[in-house]
Write a structure and sequence with these properties.
The complex is a heterodimer of chains A (about 300) and B (about 350). Chain A is mostly helical. Chain A is about 75% helix and about 0% strand. Chain A starts with a helix and ends with a helix. In chain B, about 45% of the residues lie in helices and about 20% in strands.
Chain lengths: ~300, ~350
């Protein structure tokens, strides 16, 4: 029972933190219809910026904010490459991702791993000090939960504003945006900035939890985030009161749960990548089937 | 109004989670006490995290098992070993470490720096001892305070015998001037090795020409760039990326008829001329002995000094030697050839 609770705690910790990234990727992938590969570079960017700041004694909360801004700037770069220089969406993401490798190394002063054990982080200062002692082991889940809810509410609020509506229209119906005499390119840049800002923030929070930053941590992030978004939005499609942002976070938790269950069942880690691909495929296929099903219902009477 | 309602729902969710975790928290305390009291009679669980599939790291693991066996801990009898490979990904390594902590393992062993770091950060609150192996610079990785009194974790460190290596290169190439080095910017061990190698080079009259690469695809072009710069040989450290693409380095060097020096016996078997080799099995064995001490409760991890293993043995590849037309130096006449 105790072990079980511990495992659930791990799933929630990881799922929630990566959930912030999933929300960001939801904006680029689902709303903007932009397969953004720069995520593989901006996630470690968030980590490295945070580590560099915390090592130099910056307040951890401020470090989160700065990480978000740095991520947003990187996203902005992807957007500019795509919109202004007319580079295809995949390539501009790859360009940013590649460039971020060098940027990250500059940030960490050439070190591939930058640990900051026993320094001030959001998990051992500020809000977490207010928590009662016996909740100490749950502080990471609680703070991650608060961060996720806060970011989710902010994102939901933004999507309701005029700018947010335009952002959604940019992905859905480009002509509509143009007919309003608005520039869809600007909206793409805004969307990419938000998406990568969220990703960098997730990196920042994760690095504060593990108390170290690793240059190589970006590998596989795009796949993980996309899988989370797709699992979340396809599984919870029918539940009307859930916002897609919440679905993305749930997707991330389910994704992590699948991995933990597989590991606990004794699946050799050599097969993890295969498992990832299978989960991904199942989510994609089930979302297609669900869509197909509802269409079929309409088509029969015709 | 609607936002108010939503906010209210979130508040309820947070308070529910708080309440639940509070119950769980108080419950878990009771259960841990129980767990500790009958720990002596049960089979001890040891979690091993290996960072990546790699011949030297595999040897570390095999040595660890041997070391534990010598101290009386046999897999399946009084210990249960759970080996997990993180496949070279930090996210996997963190997840594995967390799961091991939640499953209340009695000891976690991290093989290679990132795995050791994951294990340390995951186990910090739980008091589960962590032992590392194949970590070249545990102080830089902040895994220990000092080598003598590590305080947080302990383990074995593989210090590459760089001085012996450069001495060997000098013996093989008496007229050589430039040593070319390819290293991966994302690997902390390579960076620290490079720095110490650079500071050693002038003493033996060498100049270092280094090229940093970021991934597997760049190794081949880096090797031909080095050759074009007129290096007299190429030297490898334990850089995972370069070692995995060793054949392209050797190919480029062969075209220019210059030798490649390795850092361990496996590389020499694969076509390097020679190397001062660390025995990773004995590194693992030493780690196993430490683990046994901790499991028996003789010492705490923080009290065992970090063991630095730098004893090396020269090995060479006779086939490559003949092909390049280099004569075996007098002082290395007794070293072993991998072709035998």
């Amino acid at each position: 029972m105790d072990v079980f609770i511990g495992l659930i705690r791990n799933i929630l910790e990881e799922g929630l933190i990566y959930g912030i990234m999933a929300m960001g990727v939801y904006i680029t992938y689902s709303v903007l219809n932009f397969p953004d590969l720069s995520v593989d570079g901006t996630f470690p960017l968030g980590m490295c910026v945070t580590a560099a700041l915390i090592v130099n004694g910056t307040d951890p909360l401020l470090a989160c904010v700065i990480a978000f801004i740095c991520g947003a700037l990187a996203g902005c770069l992807t957007g500019l490459l795509h919109v202004k220089l007319k580079i295809t969406n995949l390539l501009s993401g790859i360009l940013t991702m590649t460039a971020m490798w060098s940027v990250n190394l500059v940030v960490t002063d050439g070190r591939a791993v930058l640990p900051f054990y026993n320094m001030k982080t959001i998990f051992n200062s500020g809000l977490s000090e207010l928590l009662p002692k016996r909740l100490y082991t749950y502080r990471i889940v609680l703070i991650a939960l608060i961060a996720v809810i806060l970011m989710k509410l902010l994102l939901d609020l933004y999507l309701k504003t005029k700018s947010g509506l335009l952002l959604r229209a940019t992905g859905d119906n480009l002509q509509f945006v143009i007919s309003l005499s608005k520039d869809p390119g600007t909206m793409k840049i805004v969307g990419l900035s938000i998406g990568n800002g969220f990703t960098a923030l997730a990196g920042s929070i994760l690095s504060q939890q593990s108390e170290s930053a690793n240059i190589n941590s970006g590998t596989g992030m795009v796949v993980m985030a996309l899988a989370s978004v797709i699992i979340g939005t396809s599984l919870f499609r029918k539940i009307k009161f859930l916002k897609p942002t919440t679905m993305a976070v749930f997707g991330s938790i389910i994704y992590k749960a699948c991995l933990v269950i597989a590991m606990q069942l004794g699946l050799p880690t050599n097969f993890l990548k295969l498992l990832m691909a299978v989960i991904f495929t199942v989510a994609l296929v089930s979302s297609n089937l669900l869509k197909g099903g509802s269409k079929g219902d309409v088509e029969i009477p015709q | 109004m609607k936002t108010c309602k939503r906010l209210f729902i979130y508040l309820i969710i947070i308070s529910m989670v708080l309440a639940l975790t509070a119950c769980a928290g108080s419950q878990s305390n009771v259960e841990t006490d129980k767990g500790n009291s009958n720990a002596n009679t049960e089979v001890l669980k040891i979690g091993v995290i290996q960072y990546a599939p790699h011949a030297s790291l595999d040897n570390c693991y095999n040595g660890l098992i041997e070391g534990l066996k010598e101290a009386g801990f046999v897999e399946g009898k009084n210990i249960k070993i759970d080996l997990q490979n993180a496949m070279g990904e930090q996210a996997n390594s963190d997840m594995i470490a967390k799961n091991m902590v939640s499953s209340k393992y009695d000891l976690i062993v991290g093989i290679a720096t990132p795995a050791a770091m994951s294990a340390y950060s995951a186990s910090k609150d739980s008091g589960i001892p962590v032992i590392f192996t194949a970590v070249s610079d545990p102080i830089e990785a902040k895994l220990v305070k000092t080598l003598e009194a590590p305080e947080y974790t302990t383990g074995t460190s593989d210090v590459l015998p760089l001085e012996a290596q450069i001495k060997m290169i000098r013996a093989f190439l008496p007229k050589g001037k430039k040593i070319g080095i390819i290293y991966t910017t994302g690997e902390p061990n390579s960076l620290s090795h490079l720095e110490s190698f650079k500071s050693l080079a002038p003493k033996y009259g060498f100049e270092i020409v280094e090229i940093g690469v970021t991934g597997p695809s760049e190794v081949a072009s880096a090797a031909s760039t080095l050759v074009a710069k007129g290096v007299d040989c190429i030297n490898n450290f334990t850089d995972n990326n370069v070692v995995n693409n060793l054949s392209s380095v050797i190919h480029a060097a062969d075209n220019a008829n210059i030798p490649v020096f390795g850092s361990e016996v496996e590389q020499v078997k694969n076509g390097c001329l020679a190397s001062e080799s660390i025995d990773y099995i004995s590194l693992g064995k030493e780690t196993g002995k430490m683990a046994a001490m901790v499991l028996k409760g003789e010492k705490k991890v923080g009290e065992i000094p970090v063991a630095l293993i730098s004893d090396s043995e020269p090995v060479y590849n006779e086939e490559v030697l003949n092909r390049l037309g280099i004569t075996l130096p007098e002082e290395y006449k007794n070293s072993t050839s991998v072709n035998e």
